[in-house]
Design a protein that fits this description.
This protein is α+β, with helices and mostly antiparallel strands and about 700 residues long. It is built from 12 helices and 26 strands. The strands form 5 sheets. Strands 18, 19, 21, 22, 23, 24, 25 and 26 form an 8-stranded mixed beta sheet that branches. Strands 1, 2, 3, 4, 5, 6 and 7 form a 7-stranded mixed beta sheet that branches. A 7-stranded mixed beta sheet has the order 11-12-13-14-9-10-15. Helix 6 packs across helix 10. The chain is globular.
Length: about 700
């Protein structure tokens, strides 16, 4: 039996652990302080991994494993705002509640059932003492068994604690906000207006996921070399997360040249139920099974990524990313559309100092016609033939059995390997290509190690403030989302233009937030590609706007509130201002999906707008923007409120990129390396305000 790369990595980890335990204690207080800072940054990541593991275990029907994520007295609280709270306590009771509500009463994945949770947009806050944390999450749930299909969603506000050195969930408080059968579409939970879910953070705390520690740090047993290894692992996690996200954006747009660029020369693609394609030429042949490069009118190819868990092997030359993909696919011109839910397990390797994608492995669990849903319809894509045929076709039995890849990471609480039970085929993690040897990092100074840690702390800060901005928008809280802007920052108001300076941003939207809402247009900001400056004080972030909507009625075409999905792209810049992460520039390109009503098939039956309708004009009303979109020329061409003929789905909107290809440096056709309004207002540049401009590729980590 071939030895798995995971087994080799565990052996190296054990050896490294033995060395750490044998390392002498350091009396240097500066090193002790740094060790504490490393632990605190790792703690924020640990609680996020807990919740993303919760989502991945849900997809596999591993209810007992979810229960094991909780403390012995842990609680799951269901609602308590619209309806009386339903509270279950203890790992076994929590597992049973979830098993019955989402798993059809069974443990493990069934052939016809579905229990997929998408849990993202975290706003995380570690306590000052580092022993507890709170995180707010957005949640969407596709589930159903025995011919039924439902869609549900809401918000988690969770408490986590460090229990005997292990992070666990103390309280998971889920606030449901919409629910409904697939056939009819969802409506507001309870049928009425929706109250605002309580916030655990304010405007300042949103930008401080890791507050400064108080008091003297305890003596640490870790050496500088060991701490450097921990920091380098976090830096590599950030690079892999950005690389995985970048792949997704290229795939969405059928940018096949850029996708192939991400692969190593011996790269491999495995698609569950279809087979294996080898080498860059094989990767390209697989891509062409989805059609030629580039989107054409009416095509939707979005593969939205959720709940990605990155595992970097000891030695730092090998890593895996495991997550969930929601396929939103369609051909509007043919009045066709599909949902697809898949699990991906991708292997990355570092060669010549650069991370590349060596193995892309995707396992579809469900594909269904958008007009029927997964309770009534399951589609099995045929194995491609002809020029796109795989080098190694899957067996006929593999094409019909649902498959899940093995979990690379051990259970974050028990430390044990997780193996899904039930009828799903467990796909081994043995590498499809050859092994890669662990690296031997060069030792660095304490100051350099601190610089590297600041870069990973910056990743947490950008994710936090972005998600907080989305939640404040959801709840129509203008002073709060305006308060996230830097003092001299800029914010685009959709379809109008940019306001410069925090006070102008707040003044432009001064209405008080309502206590309840007839519906919500959600603003999940997910799938980050983050470019971080050398000093960790500034960053550029690309986030996908994933936008479910809900209302008291399912809705009809043109309704703002009602069951539907919209989408866009945020291109933002961030700065560390007086110890708080703030948004320096907020740019939104939208909408990339303009669906019709749920009952009419969403994007599958969207039509071009009537050309005889008057052109939309967005001026900002009585409070005009400082930089109107019409002044930005090509950058805002075809966007609503911009220049040229406005386009709308199913026409394909232009998509801009702030970065070059992270592996080859290929420059995208629409490349915006600087802030958007900087073309007219150069004084808005980061480097004109005491900050560094981040590198042009998201994985760069060069010394200043």
């Amino acid at each position: 039996m071939e030895r798995s790369t995971m087994g080799r990595g565990i052996g190296i980890l054990c050896a490294a652990t033995a060395l750490l335990l044998a390392a002498p204690a350091y009396a240097d207080q500066a090193l002790d302080d740094f060790a504490r800072d490393v632990t605190r940054t790792e703690s924020v990541r640990a609680v996020k991994t807990l919740q993303r593991s919760y989502a991945q275990y849900t997809q596999a029907g591993l209810w007992d494993q979810i229960g094991a994520l909780f403390t012995e007295d842990g609680q799951l609280v269901f609602d308590g705002q619209i309806m009386p709270a339903q509270t279950v306590a203890g790992p076994s009771a929590i597992a049973e509640f979830l098993r019955n509500r989402y798993g059809g009463g069974a443990e493990g994945l069934t052939e016809s059932g579905l229990s997929t949770m998408f849990i993202e947009s975290p706003v995380a806050n570690l306590s000052e003492d580092g022993n507890s944390a709170k995180v707010r999450w957005a949640t969407l749930i596709f589930h159903g068994h025995d011919g039924a299909a439902r869609i549900e969603g809401g918000v988690f506000v969770n408490d986590y604690v460090l229990d005997h050195g292990v992070w666990k969930i103390k309280v998971a408080h889920y606030y449901p906000q919409f629910d409904g059968p697939y056939e009819k579409g969802w409506t507001n939970w309870g049928g009425g207006d929706l109250p605002i879910v309580p916030y655990h953070f304010d405007v300042r705390e949103a930008g401080v996921p890791i507050p400064p520690a108080t008091g003297a740090a305890p003596a640490s047993q870790a050496s500088l070399a060991a701490l450097q290894a921990q920091v380098d692992r976090m830096n590599d996690e950030d690079r892999i997360r950005s690389l995985q996200s970048a792949y997704g954006y290229y795939q969405d747009r059928k940018m096949w040249d850029d996708v192939v660029d991400l692969f190593a020369e011996d790269g491999v693609v495995e698609i569950g139920g279809q087979g294996v394609w080898r080498g860059k030429a094989g990767v390209r042949r697989w891509l062409e099974t989805m059609g030629p490069a580039g989107l054409t009118h009416g095509q939707l190819n979005d593969q939205v990524q959720f709940d990605t868990v990155v595992t970097v092997a000891p030695g730092g030359n090998e890593a895996w990313a495991r997550g969930i993909e929601l396929g939103m696919l369609g051909e509007a011109d043919q009045e066709s559309g599909w949902w697809q839910v898949s699990t991906f397990l991708n292997r990355f390797v570092k060669e010549d100092g650069k991370w590349e994608l060596r193995e892309l492995r995707r396992f579809p669990l469900m594909k269904t016609d958008i007009f029927q849903g997964w309770g009534k319809n399951r589609i099995v894509d045929p194995v491609p033939t002809g020029a796109g045929a795989p080098d190694e076709p899957a067996s006929p039995s593999d094409a019909t059995n649902p498959s899940l890849p093995a979990f690379i990471a051990a259970h974050p609480v028990t430390g044990e390997r997780v193996i899904p039970p039930g009828k799903a085929r467990l796909v081994a993690t043995t590498a499809l290509t050859g092994p890669i040897e662990p690296g031997a990092p060069q030792p660095v100074t304490l100051d350099e190690a601190k610089r590297r840690l600041a870069r990973s702390a910056a990743f947490e800060g950008t994710e936090n403030v972005s998600a907080a901005y989305g939640y404040y928008l959801d709840d129509s809280m203008p002073r709060e989302f305006g308060g996230l802007i830097a003092a001299k920052g800029t914010k685009m108001t959709p379809f109008a233009g940019y306001y410069i300076g925090r006070e102008r941003v707040i003044a432009a939207r001064s209405s008080p937030p309502p206590e309840t809402r007839p519906g919500i247009s959600y603003h999940w900001l997910i799938q980050p590609v983050v470019q971080i400056s050398d000093d960790g004080r500034s960053a550029v972030g690309r986030f996908r706007l994933f936008q479910p909507r809900t209302g008291k009625e399912v809705g009809k075409a043109g309704d703002f509130y009602g069951a539907s999905f919209w989408g866009g792209i945020y291109h933002d810049r961030y700065v560390l201002e007086d110890g708080v992460w703030k948004i320096w520039e907020l740019t939104l390109d939208e909408p990339y999906i303009t669906p019709v009503a749920w009952k009419d098939g969403l994007w599958a039956k969207s039509k071009d707008p009537d050309p005889n309708l008057p052109k939309r004009e967005f001026t900002g009303g009585k409070f005009p923007p400082d930089v109107p979109l019409t002044a930005l020329g090509k950058r805002e061409e075809h966007f609503w409120g911009g220049t040229g003929e406005p386009l709308q789905w199913p026409s394909i909107m232009p998509m801009w990129f702030s970065y070059t290809n992270p592996v080859t440096g290929r420059v995208p056709e629409l490349h915006q390396p600087q802030c958007v309004p900087c073309a007219l207002r150069p004084e808005l540049r980061l480097d004109a305000n005491g900050y560094q401009e981040p590198p042009d590729a998201p994985e760069a980590n060069t010394a200043p």
